[in-house]
Amino acid sequence: MSSGFTKAMARNIFYGGAVFCFLLFLGLAFDTHQVLPKRDNREGLTDSAIRGKRIWETHDCIGCHTLLGEGAYFAPELGNVYARRGPDFIKAWIKAQPTHVPGRRQMPQFNFTDQQLDDLVEFLKYTNGINTNHWPPNIEG
Amino acid sequence: MKYPSQAVSKLYFTAAIGLFAGQILFGLIMGLQYVIGDFLFPAIPFNVARMVHTNLLIVWILFGFMGAGYYLVPEESERELYSPKLAKILFWVFLVAGALTILGYLLVPYAELARLTGNDLLATMGREFLEQPLITKVGIVVVCLGFLFNLTMTMLGGRKTSISLIMLMGLWGLALFFLFSFVNPDNLVKDKFWWWWVVHLWVEGVWELILGAMLAFVLIKVTGVDREVIEKWLYVIIAFTLMTGIIGTGHHYFWIGTPEYWQVWGSVFSAMEPIPFFMMTVFAFNMVNRRKREHPNKVATLWAMGTGVMAFLGAGVWGFLHTLAPVNYYTHGTQITAAHGHMAFYGAYAMVVLTMISYTMPLMRGREANSNKAQVVEMWSFWLMTIAMVFITLFLTGAGILQVWLQRYSSTPMSFMATQDQVMVFYWLREITGLVFLLGFMLYVASFFIKGETKAA
User: Fold this and answer.
1) Cβ proximity of B246 and B177 under 8 Å
2) What distance in Å separates the CA atoms of residue B18 and residue B16, rounded to the nearest whole number?
């Protein structure tokens, strides 16, 4: 870099640019939260769904599955599993684990109660109702 | 080494290398589970192995940053560390807490761990990379604050250089944005929104300040180029980092319930994120070409140049590959993401820590550079690990492209598991390449034990 461009100028670009961009980001974050009520399916966030989210978290489901595309890539996307499989299949599937098929990926048995299974399904139903801009591209996730 | 108190770094770097070994081991276990699904089941389910793999990564990189901070800040400030004793106490606190957390993951069912550690008080667990129990998260904050207090006091009492200032800004930012790990709204969209304020604003924000400062520090030492020139470069690089990276967070807000306009903001700004990484590569090569001295530690110079190149490829090029919204619509949450994650983390953060270790460890062991023999072995480890990581990335990219084609793009999409069967060959190749990476790592460790002719520092 030429000597006409000094370290002080570079430093000022850094501070000015960083502060400006962070403020712009804060503005966008604020606006996002204004728009969210129309998109985030908060009416679907029942007490049961909230309990379901806790079950989702405390069993580290994200360590194998993705949810809205985020998580691990070892097991299927579950953001739209409610639409793909329906509530009864989901519950039956979880109860039937592990499959013990030799060489196949295995999901642990969590010994959930019926209430816990209902809560988990309620959480997946709520998630399925979030406006994700038409993602995933198809039902397979 | 100019100041005896800098030697606390040795503890931190040793722990970092030890934890790195654990990360590689669990990576190999997961890689095998990708091809032999029931390997080690139910003793170590995949999600547990993954928590251990990713959490060890974060912790060893943090140990690396801390070790680097304890070495760099006293040297830049031209004085002893404010409190070497505090640095040693915090080291043991962090190491024991980290080890207990990992043992907790391995020995106790996760739901039980959550119950035992009071997750009901404030639910923070079970989110990707932030799986740590509440008490561990609090511990991380306490250790970071103690560390930052120590370094800030060191800098305030001595010479203030741009490098140490930027290092500290990055580290303070790291601690600050980690506080968002305590934010976990019931609303999944908000949960995900704030989660990225830790994950993205770390790795594509403040961590890059730390990376830049460490690289600049080593480049000054090994090239002898004028500090004014190097610090000017550093400011320009981190200016572009934050001007592109902060709003670049938007590339995570395409499909999680956040408004559509993020597709424009996220695509445009994150498309520019490779710029600072490209500059970093040019910077490293340019400084080495303009060197005013021949530093005997050749392998440290190799790591520094490697960091520039691999960070640009992994974070810059592989990031750009899937960052535009129309592309990301198909690639989001596929093996493409895994490919990018691996090369970016290795190329940017693993390699810069290894650069710092490579430069400082000989000095802390009483010599300016390791013997030629030891350096040659370390260079072999550099090439083996780096080339292995390039191929791991290529194989995962292959898996990802095929996955997108079969499961996402097709008019008759396959199910997830059927698709996984189709891409199995790539997973096998990745696992074999992982073994080459392990071999490289073993040579790396071996290089510390190779003697030979050395000059005193």
Assistant:
1) no
2) 5
Locate the domains of chain A by residue range: 7-37, 42-128
Q: Model confidence over A68-124: pLDDT tens digits?
A: 999 999 999 999 999 999 999 999 999 999 999 999 999 999 999 999 999 999 999
Place of tokens 């997830």: B416
Q: Tens digits of per-residue pLDDT, A37-62? A: 999 999 999 999 999 999 999 999 99
Residues A107 and A18 sit within 8 Å (Cβ to Cβ): no
Residue of A nearest to B201 (CA): A22
- pLDDT under 50: residue ranges of chain B: none
| Partner-chain residue, chosen from B125, B265, B413, that has the shortest CB–CB distance to A58 | B125
Tell me the pLDDT tens digit for each residue of B265-276: 999 999 999 999
* Tokens representing residue B155 in the block: 């800098």
Class of A42-128 in CATH: mainly alpha
Distance in angstroms (rounded) separating the CA atoms of residues B101 and B133: 8
Q: Which residues of B touch A139 (CB under 8 A)?
A: 413
CA distance B263 to B328: 10
Cβ of A70 and B233 within 8 Å?
no
Structure tokens at A40: 């985030």
